[in-house]
Every structure is written in C-alpha cells, then in structure tokens.
Amino acid sequence: MGLFSRKKVEVVEEDLDPEYQYGPRRLRIIKVLRGRYAPQSIECDNVSEGDVHDESAFNVVVVTDDFMSSPKISLPYQKRIQMVIETVADEFGTPLPFTLTVQAALTLKEYDGEATVPAQPGQFAIGTIK
Fold first, then answer.
1. Which InterPro entries is this protein grouped with (predicted)?
2. pLDDT (tens digit, 0 to 9) for every residue of the chain, 130 residues total?
C-alpha cells in the first residue's frame, strides 16, 4: 500500500455515509476535482475547528495520472500543488473563502509505492477564512 489509505470516492449523494458530515463546500471541492482530474483516489477532509458545519478548512489528497507530463515523466511536485489549488480557485474564486491544504498530489505509481515522488511531499495551504 502507498503513503495514504486508498479511498476511491464516487460522489453520488445517495451513497455518502450518513454518519459523516458532508457539507456543501466539501462536496463541491470533491466534484470539481473529480471533474478536472478523474482521480483514482481522492480525499477531502473538513478539518475546521469547532462546529462541523463551519467548513472553513480542508485537507485534500489527489491521486491521478493527470500529474504525468508523458508516460514516463511526472510533473514537478510544486506544479501539481498549483494545479489543484487553481482548479479549486477557479470554482470558488480568489481569495478562497476557506483554507485549502494540499497534503499530497500523487500519480498512481507514487501512491502505490512503485515510483518516487519528485519532491518531498509537504503541506501547502492557500486561502483565507472569512
């Protein structure tokens, strides 16, 4: 298994876990990232402090081969982070009305541990809390 737990997300509201709080921003982030990248795996966690309906901070992990510039060459890691942030910003506008932390932006082989990530994954955050 790779760096993160595998969690394929098919965002069909009827299939969502009724015990988990899926707010409208979280659903919208997942839908926009799925629409742009068709990821093999995606995680989007509401990490807001306080009320679960706050939706002021999110951590995301995106795993997709869209981060490959050719079949054997992956995009620079910082470029991937920028792509994810820009995709979400195109949907919500800038500055973002919440904090978005991209915890990882990996290709499927990197995720499965079959390839090396081109730079040490870190946390990259953007956005402001209104």
1. BolA-like_sf
2. 344 444 444 444 444 555 555 789 999 999 999 999 989 999 999 898 876 678 999 999 999 999 998 888 889 988 999 999 999 999 999 899 999 999 999 999 999 999 888 765 555 555 543 3
CA gyration radius for the chain? 14
Sign (positive or negative) of CA dihedral 6, 12, 16, 21:
positive
Q: How far, in Å, CA of 88 to CA of 15, rounded?
A: 23
Question: What residues contact 53, with CB distance under 8 A and at least 6 apart?
Answer: 21, 23
**CB half-sphere exposure, 13, CA atoms < 13 A:** 7
Q: What gap in Å lies between CA 5 and CA 76, rounded to an integer?
A: 23
Angle 5-92-90 from CA coordinates, rounded to 5°: 85
Please tell me the number of Cα atoms within 13 Å of 43 on its side-chain side. 17
Residue type, 42: I
The secondary element (H helix, E strand) that includes residue 59 is strand 57-63
DSSP-based three-state secondary structure for 124: strand
